[in-house]
Amino acid sequence: MAKAVKLRKPQAQKRGPGKTPVSLKVNHGLHTIFVEPRRTLLDALRKDLGLIGTKKGCDEGTCGSCTVLFDGKPVYACLMLAIECEGHEIETIEGLSQGDQIHPIQQAFIEHDAFQCGFCTPGQILSVKALLDANPSPSADDVKRAVSGNLCRCGAYPKIVQAALKAAERLKS
């Protein structure tokens, strides 16, 4: 009679406490950086990769200024550890334009004056992009829901909704 064998689960690779290599797929490029395991994705993007379009606001996941796309879904970069992001696609505001050609969502934000101070704008735009990628024909209520996690202290919400709906029209044609 065969004896039951207990299989061991492979142990997760231990990292830290010092800096460790992390490979991040950001804006369609692979970047290897050395970070402490406690480093947030937000700080890795801004400080290690120089992608300062992603803003640091509250640093506690309430304002949305640090919104990036993580495998196409909007997330707060201040709440994610850089080491958790290996093997995933990350897109920042810098990844939207193609050379000198800005993205239709960015163009619509400019045309509709959908920003004032501009601090929340990168997060707003990426939240709108995630919505339009999932739903190319959103209603105004869909847009409001999509950007509900992004706070705008200037109160540009009506113009943000207009810009998102205009971008949706442009992307369909």
Automatic annotation (TrEMBL):
InterPro entries membership: 2Fe-2S-bd, 2Fe-2S-bd_dom_sf, 2Fe-2S_ferredoxin-like_sf, 2Fe-2S_ferredoxin-type, 2Fe2S_fd_BS, Beta-grasp_dom_sf, Diverse_Oxidoreductases
An example molecular function term from Gene Ontology annotations: oxidoreductase activity
Ranges annotated as biased composition (Basic residues): 1-12
Alphabetized SUPFAM superfamilies for the sequence: 2Fe-2S ferredoxin-like, CO dehydrogenase ISP C-domain like
Protein name: 2Fe-2S ferredoxin-type domain-containing protein
Signal peptide as annotated in the record: none
Keyword flag Phosphoprotein: no
Assigned keywords, A-Z: 2Fe-2S, Iron, Iron-sulfur, Metal-binding, Oxidoreductase
Residues in 2Fe-2S ferredoxin-type domain copies: 20-96
Pfam families to which the protein is assigned, alphabetical: Fer2, Fer2_2
Start and end residues of each stretch annotated as Disordered: 1-20
The UniProt record lists the keyword Oxidoreductase: yes
Organism: Fraserbacteria sp. (strain RBG_16_55_9)
